[in-house]
Specification:
The protein has 16 helices and 14 strands. The protein is of the alpha/beta class. Helix 9 crosses helix 10 and helix 13 crosses helix 14.
Length: about 400
């Protein structure tokens, strides 16, 4: 399908109108044969349901398209050939995507790598290894540009191909310290968002973003995730979309592994090497995407799902939901200090090293590389921690943090 400029503007006006989400958009276009006729019918249709609706103005949407063009981006609509085929297949695909970068990456098979913002050195090293090895096998790496695992996966796959999905507008990079990374992504891969330019990411925007991360991908790898992590929402979406869910096992002593270990108990595919992913995805690459699955049914003990959009109920469609009460990927008050290249300015090397340590042994060289500290400084910090009986030393220059789950939670 090829849209004219006028049709593209109508699509943008309709999705930017008040209380119009992906399902309402689809219902309107299907009923009236296009976005233009739907815009004309919408006020009367809403009035019949006892509602009013504010329709996005032509001028505001023209400004958005002009602003996107100034950034070097483009607007891609659902039915167009360049729209990612894997994303088109999900239950509630975004009708319109703002895209910055190389559209050719969408023609290649993709795998999502997600995990803790406050990842351990072991988690970051594993994410790096997976991104490097899968990239070498021709896979594009998808993630959400968040701190920790996301950023590490993106940086490692810049040369082989990576896609960053934003919760806000393409001109509102969050977190702000990843603006340079976002520019590199646009040069070597692509940045996408379903939100308008100028949009500051809010709470419900992160689960919306997560469904796109999983929807662009044949499978999602969860490296580290606390029991109520936003990464588990991505895993849930992946399962509902019929995609493969991989979980990396972690120490039962580390709360950053509680969520991934729970995924394994619920039936996620064990992931300890890139070969696990390649083997599991081979049938999908050969036969196409499977039907949506039933993995991760919401137990009654979990918070009840809540809607992703405040959509007009014009056609009786169920609105997509996500589990309420989960931490979002960008919780402003994380339980651990942010580690590695995204440590806040002014945070000393000791705090960065401590945030990278966990029950899984890691090398001193990895601690130095991920913290940005000199090896000599790392050794001095580890000596202080050793004297305080906080770490355990292993052969091969490996160290791990001592303690119980309660000790980790208190960090």
């Amino acid at each position: 399908m090829k849209l004219s400029d006028a049709q593209r503007l109508d699509w943008l006006r309709l999705i930017r109108s008040e209380n119009i989400g992906p399902r309402t958009f689809r219902g309107l276009v299907n009923r009236y044969g296009g976005a233009g006729p739907a815009l004309e019918a919408l006020p009367h249709l809403a009035k019949q349901g006892g509602r009013t609706v504010r329709i996005a103005t032509r001028e505001s949407c023209e400004r958005e398209m002009e602003g996107l063009a100034r950034l070097g981006g483009k607007l891609v609509c659902l039915g167009e050939d360049v729209f990612p085929a894997s994303l088109r297949a999900i239950d509630s695909p975004p009708p319109v995507l703002s895209l910055l970068g190389d559209v050719s990456v969408f023609a290649r098979p993709a795998v999502a790598i997600v995990g803790s913002r406050n990842a351990s050195a072991a988690g970051l090293t594993f994410a790096e290894r997976m991104a490097q090895e899968l990239g070498a096998q021709g896979f594009v790496i998808v993630s959400g540009l968040a701190r920790g695992v996301d950023a590490r996966a993106h940086r490692t796959s810049l040369r082989s191909g990576t896609i960053g999905v934003l919760a806000g507008g393409l001109d509102k990079i969050y977190p702000s310290e990843h603006e340079d990374l976002a520019r590199e992504l646009a040069e070597h891969g692509a940045l996408v968002s379903e939100m308008p330019l100028g949009w500051e990411a809010r709470g419900r925007d992160f689960p919306r973003r997560n469904r796109i991360v999983s929807g662009l991908s044949l499978g999602t790898i969860v490296v580290e995730a606390a029991r109520r992590s936003g990464s588990l929402i991505t895993a849930r979406f992946a399962a509902e979309q019929g995609r493969e869910v991989f979980a990396v096992p972690g120490s039962p002593l580390d709360p950053r592994a509680e969520g991934t270990n729970d995924l394994l108990r619920q039936g996620a595919t064990l992931c300890t090497q890139s070969g696990d992913v390649i083997e599991a995805l081979a049938p999908i690459l050969r036969d196409g995407l499977p039907q949506p699955g039933t993995l991760f049914e919401t137990p009654s003990a979990l918070p009840q799902p809540e809607p992703l959009w405040d959509e007009l109920d014009l056609f009786g469609d169920a609105v997509p939901t996500t589990m309420a009460g989960h931490e979002l990927d960008e919780d402003p008050a994380p339980p651990f200090k942010v580690a590695a290249e995204v440590a806040p300015r002014g945070e000393d090397a000791g705090a960065r090293i401590l945030s990278l340590l966990g029950p899984a042994p890691v090398t001193i060289d990895d601690l130095a590389r991920l913290s940005g500290a000199a090896v000599a400084d790392v050794r001095m910090i580890l000596l202080d921690l050793d004297l305080a009986d906080r770490i355990e030393r292993h052969g091969g220059n490996l160290v791990s943090l001592k303690g119980t789950p309660e000790d980790y939670s208190a960090r």
